[in-house]
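Could you please review the protein record set out just below?
***
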Amino acid sequence: MWHWSLMATLLCLAGPTIVATELGTEGPRFALNGKPTFLLGISYYGALGASKEFIQRDLEDLQRYGFNWIRVWATWAAFGNDVSAVDGEGRPREPFLSRLQWLVAECNRRGMVVDVTLSRGNSITGPGRLQSLAAHRRAIEVLVTHLQPYRNWYLDLANERNIRDPRFVSFSQLKQLRDLVKQLDPQRLVTASHAGDISREELRDYLLRVQVDFIAPHRPRNPQSPQQTEAKSRQYLAWMKEIGRVVPLHYQEPFRRGFRPRRWEPPAAAFLTDLRQALAGKAAGWCFHNGDQKDRPEGKPRRSFDLREQCLFAQLDAEERKVIEAVHRLVAKLYPQT
């Protein structure tokens, strides 16, 4: 049984800082406890709806295969199940905020990084939320305050913030939200993910206007994309040098299976090519993205989008398991220290 309120109380009493795993940056790379590290991660969006047993089982499997970070949403309400840690106005929402605290603490103990993502919502992740700047600020205050003792997580201010639907967050608002985080916790790493490739002008805004700590583009999802990742990565790094500020390039949400299966269902080879190209292009991190299967009844397997009935590893298909078994070898070959 989960005693979420008790866990939250104990965490608050534990002291101002609990450092076992500390995430930082060193130029174009991430660092864990001061050691340059490639972030090899996986989408784990609906984690706050999973049982403690499922989470621990998944984390053990992930570590066995060399993964060192997970992406978790603080605003997730897929398939009629709202497991958001904050409500539509940014207020604390239990028991899910306490679950997020526990998860960050567990990953901290294991030496793993947690991506905590906010979104203003769309039809997949639930109804619109955080639609006012005040609500968005309130959500950030809740998350940063409750998770402040831990140094193993970063904040994505707004998932795919450039899409002109309820998710949209302007650069002006991003700047205010980023500044709020830094006022509350100056060392907390912050990004804002971008749907599609980032233009040079947009990159300048992210780096100099908003001043994110790293960039997180979500590259196009088509059969040509994996072969373009190295060139695109090198272009980003070259642009950053020209602009005068170099930060890590983090591929936080690439393509996945089940997204538009009638158009392209990527095989294992496509994922591995994309990772190889990201490594060759000097990216700092890459995510094995996964989600529901849109051409199947009830979207099953839903993978990380719904972890109530099965843990993530139990929902991966044969092609995805090939990826899981191969990715760490690719990273370790080029980055032996990871």
User: Anything to note?
Assistant: Residues 1-14 have pLDDT under 50 and may be disordered.
